[in-house]
Amino acid sequence: MLQISLWKRVVILALCLAALVLAAPNLFYSRVESHNDAVSAFEKSGAMTEAQAAAKAAWPDWLPSGLVNLGLDLRGGAHLLAEVHLSEVYKARLDALWPEARKVLAAERATIGSIRRIAAPEGELRIQIGKPDQIAKAVEVAKTLTAPVVSLTGVGQSDYEVTGVGDTITFRLSEAEKTATDDRTMEQSLEIVRRRVDAAGTREPTIMRQGQDRILIEVPGIGSAQELKDLIGTTAKLTFNQVYGPPVSTPEANPGMGRALLPSADREGIYYILDDVPVVTGDDLTDARPDTDQNGYPAVAFRFNPTGARMFGDYTATHIGEPFAIVLDGKVISAPTIQAHIAGGSGIITGNFTVEEATNLALLLRAGALPAGMSFLEERTIGPELGADSIEAGKKAAMVGFGLVVVWMIASYGLFGTFAAFALILNVVMIFGFMSAVGATLTMPGIAGIVLTMGTAVDANVLVYERIREELRNTKSPARAIELGYEKAMSAIIDANVTTFLTGVILFVLGAGPVRGFAVTLIVGIATSVFTAIFVTRLLVVTWFAWKRPKTIIV
C-alpha cells in the first residue's frame, strides 16, 4: 500500500523548508549584499561609516545572509593573465650567495690567489681566481657553502651545483632546487595577489595558477583591468620588530612613546607591544622555506640580503633570549625567541610547528613583496551592462524553458504533471539554496546548467508515470499501480542520473573557469532533481491519494 512513514515526511518537509530559507536572500540581492559588505568592513577595521551602518541595518542579522555569488560574466569586472618572471628569483638567489662565497674564498686567498665576480649567463654565478692551478682547491672550498640540506621529507640534497673550469668557479641552482623554487615563487605570488585582492573587499575572486609560470586573476565587481593591476602592484608591509614584555590581552593597553600595540594574527585577543622602528624590513628578506631543526622537528629557515644580514646579526648578538616579532600587514604572525647570535644573514625559527604550520609561516614570511616581476599577457574589462544583459538573457531562457516543460508535463499527465511542475519549482529553489549556503559562484554557463536541469529534472517523473500507466493497463488497482510505478522505475532513474552525475564530476575535475561553472550547477541540479522527483512528488501523490481515495486515476 501507499505509505510514507512520519519521520520521512518530516525530513522531506524540513529539507524543502531549509532550501526555501537559504534561497530567499537572493530575492533581496542588493540589500543583502550591502549588509554583508558592511559586516565585512567592520570585521576588518572595527568601525563602519553611517552608510555602512544603514546598509547593515537594512537586513536583520538573525536572517540568513548567504548569496549566490555572481561570476565575472554576470557581474562585470576585470580579467588578467599574468606571467611571473621566475628567472629573477634565480638571479636574486645567486646574488645573495656571492657575499658568502667571497667570504669563504677570501679566507684561502694565500692559496688560490685573488677572487672576483665576473659576468655570467642567466642562472649562473661565476667567480674568477688568481691561481688557475688551484681550481680544485677553490671548488672544494666553495662546496662548503652548498652542503646537502635535510628537507622536511628527510631527503638530503644540495641546492647548488658547483663546477670549476680553468680559473673560473661556476655556481648553478640544481634542477631539483629550480623546481622547488618555482613552486615556492608561484605559491608566494598567489598568496600575495590573493591578500591584496581580498584587502579591497571584492567578492569571490578567482586566483589560480595556470601552467608553469602564469596566474589567472578574475575579480568581479572591480572597475577596470587597470584598477586591478594597480591593486596588485601595491606592496604589503613585512617588518621584524623588537618586542617589549610579554603579550597582553587588552587592546586598551598604553604601549608608550615610540611603541605600537599590534594584534596576533592567529591568537584572538592577544596583543604585542613592539618598537615602532623595525630592526629589519621585508625588503631585506631574500628567502624563507620550511626546514627542520637539529632534532628533526619542523622549523622555518630564512635568509637576508647583506644589508639585512648585518643589521639582524648586530641585533641578535645583543638580544639573546628575547622575543622578536615578525609583522605582516600590521599583525604579528610569529614572535619567536632569539636563541643565539645569528650571523651571516640566515637563521632558523623553531617552535612547536606542524609541517603545515611551518610551510604556511614560510609562505607568509615571503609574502611581504612580490618575489618576481609580472608581465600581463592578457587583460579584459567586462562592464556591468554586459553582465546585466547576460542575467536578463538567462532569466528569459530559464522562464521559457520552465514554461515549456510545465505545459508539456501538464498536457501529458494532467494532475500528476502538476505535481511534477511543483517539484520542478522546488528543484530550482533547492539549487539556489545549496549554492547560497556554500557561497558558490554562478556564471552564464552555470545558468545554462540550471536551464538544462529543468529539462532533465522531469525525466524521473516521466519514467515513473509511464510505469504507472503500464501497470494500470495490466488492470492493477490505482494504489498498487502507483506503488509499482515507483518501484520499477527506480533502477532506470538511478542509472540515468549516476551516469550524468559522473559526467558532471569529470567536467568539474578536468575543466576550468566556465566549464566548472556549468559542472557545478549540473551536479547540484542532478542531486536535487532526484530528490524532488522521487521523494517530493511521491509525497504529493501519496497525500493526494490518501485524501481523495479515487477509484480510478488518469495518468
UniProtKB/TrEMBL annotation:
UniProt domain SecDF P1 head subdomain: residue ranges: 262-372
Domain Protein export membrane protein SecD/SecF C-terminal residue range list: 376-544
Subcellular location: Cell membrane
UniProt keywords, alphabetically: Cell membrane, Membrane, Protein transport, Translocation, Transmembrane, Transmembrane helix, Transport
Main location (coarse class): membrane
InterPro entries for the chain: Acrflvin-R, SecD, SecD/SecF_arch_bac, SecD_1st, SecD_SecF_C, SecD_SecF_C_bact, SecDF_P1_head
Keyword presence, Membrane: yes
Domain of life per record: Bacteria
Domain Protein translocase subunit SecDF P1: start-end pairs: 186-243
Transmembrane regions listed in the UniProt entry: 397-416, 489-512, 518-547
Function as written in the Swiss-Prot or TrEMBL entry: Part of the Sec protein translocase complex. Interacts with the SecYEG preprotein conducting channel. SecDF uses the proton motive force (PMF) to complete protein translocation after the ATP-dependent function of SecA.
Subunit details: Forms a complex with SecF. Part of the essential Sec protein translocation apparatus which comprises SecA, SecYEG and auxiliary proteins SecDF-YajC and YidC.
Name of the protein: Protein translocase subunit SecD
Upper classification of the organism: Bacteria, Pseudomonadati, Pseudomonadota, Alphaproteobacteria, Rhodobacterales
Gene name, Swiss-Prot/TrEMBL: secD
